[in-house]
Amino acid sequence: xxxxxxxxxxxxxxxxxxxxxxxxxxxxxxxxxxxxxxxxxxxxxxxxxxxxxxxxxxxxxxxxxxxxxxxxxxxxxxxxxxxxxxxxxxxxxxxxxxxxxxxxxxxxxxxxxxxxxxxxxxxxxxxxxxxxxxxxxxxxxxxxxxxxxxxxxxxxxxxxxxxxxxxxxxxxxxxxxxxxxxxxxxxxxxxxxxxxxxxxxxxxxxxxxxxxxxxxxxxxxxxxxxxxxxxxxxxxxxxxxxxxxxxxxxxxxxxxxxxxxxxxxxxxxxxxxxxxxxxxxxxxxxxxxxxxxxxxxxxxxxxxxxxxxxxxxxxxxxxxxxxxxxxxxxxxxxxxxxxxxxxxxxxxxxxxxxxxxxxxxxxxxxxxxxxxxxxxxx
Length: 378
Description:
mainly beta; 2 helices; about 375 residues; 5-stranded antiparallel sheet
C-alpha cells in the first residue's frame, strides 16, 4: 500500500508542476495518513475500507483505508488512486463490500456500482444501476437492490427490482421485480431474501420480504413482516433478522425473526434497531433515535434474548454524538462504530476491544458509514 501512495504522490506532483490538469481542470487531492496504532501483526485482515457517504447532491462520497500491518489510517484515497476518474467517487455512498479480489461500492445518487481492486482501490469498471442501495453475494454473483426510480417521495412510486451482476464478466445479467424500495438482502439455501421498505410511499409503507428463487430468478413469495423494513442478517441456524423502522412517529421500530425453513415470521421482538451486525451467536446492534439517547446492545441469537445493554464498557460512548455505521472484525472481534456528528461536519470512527474498551478513534470523512474488511489472502 505504501508504494502505491508514493507513486500516486509523484504522479500528482508532476501534474501540478506542469500546470496541466489530470482531470480536465479538477484538482487531484492527495490522501492524508495518520499513525493511529502500532503495527498490528495478529490480525488475519490486511485492513478495512470505510465508505463515507457524503451529503446528497454534494458529490462528496470518499473512501478511507486502515492498514493493520502498519497501523496507518489513510483518508480519502480514491482521488489519489484514480486521478483519471472525472467527478471522483460520486454522490452518496450507500454500501461497501469486498468479494473475491474486488471492492464494490454502491453510489446511490450517481446510479452506479463502482468496482475496484480490493488491494489498491483502483477502479476496474462501473455498472449503471438506477438508485441502487445494497449488495449481497453468492456463487460468483452480486445482487443489487434498486429503488428503480429517481429519488423522490411519491405515493405512486413504481415497483422496484434487484439486479444480478456476474462478478467474473462484470456485466448485469438478470433483473427481478420485488416490492417497493428494497433495502438489505441475505442469501440462504438457493433463495435471496429482500427487505422491502416502501420508503417513497410513506405513509403507505411496504411491509414485506420478497423471496427470490436464484435458479429461476423469480419472486416465489412475499412474507408479511412489519412496515418500513431495512437491515437484514442471517445466523448460522438459518434464522433471518430484519428490522422495521416503523413510521418514525406512532409505530415504533421492532426486530423480526424469520425461519428460512418455513419462510414464516417466528418472533416479533419489541427491540428498536437502527443498525446491526452479527458475530458468531451475538447480534450487535444500536438504536439511535436522536443524538442523546443511543443504546448499544447484544442479543444472543440462540435464545433471542438481550445479554448486554451496553457493549461499550468504559463510558466512552459519551463521546459519540450520533452513531451510524457498525462493523465487527471477523478475526479479532474488535468493534467499529462511526459517528456522523450532525451529518454536516467531518465524522469519526471508533475502534473498541471485544470487551468494549476504546482502543482508538480518528477523524473520517463526511457521514462515515460502511466498513469492508480485506483478508490478507486477497
